[in-house]
Backbone:
């Protein structure tokens, strides 16, 4: 595993982000419950956002843009998420540039957004906060927790990977990060990640069913 993941942290921030291009596009349409569940760089000046919207609000949108029209195509129940591409903003660019990955971004009142993301180290966390404040953004740290190894069933490496996978949405449905993406963040191959998680799951199951055997 690369040294870039020695002490990973899970961070939750509230940021007054008037730069957010997604909010600028969607709130004028009456969409106020917006959740960004993934961000990815698609080019040096463009960021793709996987956006989850409230189906009830979406049904009342008149003359929706092309991306939102596609969400309700097919005659069945409307999809709740869609990829939207934009120039991004200072927050997204900072998170991506520090080798962090977004867990979620949820719109609150006005232009305030709550961001939940993983950072590889405390230094990366300080860099993100410093960059945001330098850009004039109001930042409120709600939570910051680091990986703490525990003596028990799993090895420290297995614990760390399961912790990162859980916090990053690997076990969510649908997944917020897939095997290839998580392996890249950890600095290991997808096959190595699969083997580590397989062995870890075996240890957990053997411990859980120990009394049965």
Residues:
């Amino acid at each position: 595993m690369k040294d870039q993941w020695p002490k990973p942290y899970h961070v939750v921030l509230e940021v007054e982000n008037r730069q957010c291009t997604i909010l600028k596009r969607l709130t004028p349409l009456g969409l106020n419950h917006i959740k960004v569940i993934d961000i990815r760089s698609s080019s040096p000046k463009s960021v793709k956002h996987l956006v989850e919207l409230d189906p009830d609000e979406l049904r009342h949108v008149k003359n929706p843009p092309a991306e939102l029209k596609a969400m309700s195509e097919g005659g069945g129940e409307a999809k709740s998420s869609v990829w939207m591409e934009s120039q991004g903003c200072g927050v997204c660019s900072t998170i991506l540039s520090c080798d962090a990955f977004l867990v979620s971004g949820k719109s609150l009142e006005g232009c305030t957004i709550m961001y939940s993301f993983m950072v590889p180290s405390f230094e990366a966390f300080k860099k993100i906060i410093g960059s945001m404040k330098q850009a004039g953004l109001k930042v409120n740290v709600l939570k910051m927790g680091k990986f703490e190894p525990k003596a028990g069933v799993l090895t420290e490496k297995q614990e760390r990977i399961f912790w990162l996978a859980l916090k990053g949405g690997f076990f969510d449905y649908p997944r917020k990060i897939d095997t290839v993406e998580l392996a890249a963040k950890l600095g290991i191959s997808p096959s190595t990640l699969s083997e580590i998680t397989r062995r870890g799951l075996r240890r957990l199951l053997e411990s859980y069913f120990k009394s049965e055997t």
Summary: The longest helix spans residues 190-208. The helical segments are 21-26, 55-59, 66-71, 90-97, 122-134, 156-168, 179-186, 190-208. The CA atoms of residues 17 and 102 lie 16 Å apart.
